[in-house]
Amino acid sequence: MPSTPWAKAPDHRDPAGTLADQREFLESGLSPVRCDTCGSEVRVRKASRVQTSVQWSADPAATCPEFSARVAAGEVGARIDTCPMLRASIEAAVAGGRLAVPDA
After folding, report:
1. What is the pLDDT of residues 33-88, one digit of tens each?
2. Full 3-state SS string of the chain
3. In what order do the strands lie in the sheet with 41-46?
């Protein structure tokens, strides 16, 4: 069987377009949500009823007591899914109409 070279897409040569795409992906549709328990503020995007993107502006372990306690107990911060109180605050923002859900 003859060998076939890997077909690779050409390098993208539009840095402005790449930056615009990156900005759109990382920032579009994000809304601030504050945790009702500790006051930590995150930016949240709901792509659907079940999909939630959360961006922290600071180290969660430095602002959220739940993350702080779990990291202090030896968990890796990046592997902690979320804080239950923050999740409840996000769900309350959806229920109160402060956070839009596209397919709802």
Report:
1. 999 999 999 999 998 999 999 999 889 999 999 999 999 999 998 899 889 999 99
2. CCCCCCCCCCCCCCHHHHHHHHHHHHHCCCEEEECCCCCCEEEEEECCCCCEEEEECCCHHHHCHHHHHHHHCCCCHHHCCCCHHHHHHHHHHHHCCCCCCCCC
3. 31-34, 41-46, 52-56
Distance, in Å, from the CA atom of 99 to the CA atom of 91, rounded to the nearest integer, reads 9
Q: For residues 40 and 86, is the Cβ–Cβ distance under 8 A?
A: yes
